[in-house]
Amino acid sequence: MRKKSMILALISLLALSLLFVGCGGEDDSTATTAGSDEVIKIGFLGATTGGHADFGIKTLEGMKMAAEDLNKEGVLGKKVVIVEEDHASKQSEAANVVQKLIHRENVKAIIGDPTTGITKLAAPIAEDNKVVLMSAGAVGPNVVNTEDGQLREYVYRNTLLDAVAAPAVVKFLKEEEGWKKVALITSMNNDYSVGLSKIFKEALQNEGIEIVAEESIQDGDQNFAAQVTSFKSKKPDGIVFTGYYTEGGLFMKEVRKQGLDINMVGGDGLLGSTLWELGGEAVNGSMVYCGFMADPTMAEGKTKDFIDRYSKEHNGELPNMFVAQGYDAVMMIADAMKAAGSDDPTKFKEEIKKLENWQGVSGTITIRDNHEPLKSPVYLLEVVKDEEGQHFKVKAVIPVKG
Predict the structure, then answer these.
(1) Are residue 284 and residue 388 in the same domain, yes or no?
(2) Cα 325 → chain centroid
């Protein structure tokens, strides 16, 4: 009997200890295991390793900041949890990540990818599974719609579009920089680059700027001697480079090596410190356009608070476009959920369509009928080297009209 009593006592103690564990608080690191009725899960689709990690890491930082702010009061009485996945900059892994976020983690929305190619890969998966996908970086064509123009109901983005920015920048280069002829460089295994080159080509032709050379590269290339040699004798006023910062930095090293004193311009695919980490002083003068640039001296309201907070938490570093747009993407999703009174994607997706003159930290955003964002102005940045080291500095703020 005594032995039986001891066993019963031990069982009781074990049950009591499990009860205390079950009633304990839940921190961010364990919240992803909570039931879907207890939290609102928002998935991160991007790279934290690999060639495009600069984009992904910064987007994720902004998303986490937004979740922290939202969780001061909660959304629909629930805690917002960011579910992290890393596709390591590999398209082959991206589909697996999307499937995992949807089917294993049961996310209500996915923020990402910062790149056009992977967003286009993820879009039909999200659409088929009725999960909202909001890209905070994809700027190329055929993201919110299919190749044949059919609009996707669950896919949105909040970034400055190339179709808006590139023509404005080309006009600036002609009128303010005096460019009359350029070399156009396209990475042929990069959807973003191929799409952007088409947009730039049309804009250049409309402004009467001659394309004296069109050269092809591949993401992952490291030797660009042949391409630079090919257009060197044609003496372009500048280079339109539509790829990413990894190849961009190395490309400009070759340009300088061959004695050319011309600069490069491109889209936000060049926006990252890797540009000068690989290109060194060869990229000084290179220009990059984007939809946000932190300027503590000019910022006001929530944008200033955002910049100051990020800077304090990152040893004086300023947030870039991907941080700001990652933050705004989560906040837009949260506002849509609140307006719908539901975290059901079939319901809150309808509220995203209604966002008009929505004020985020990255600027004012209106979602148009085609699910595309209207943002202004265009920030044209330039790589400079001064007492602060190499960094991007605002060269021009170019207004655009809808």
Answers:
(1) yes
(2) 7
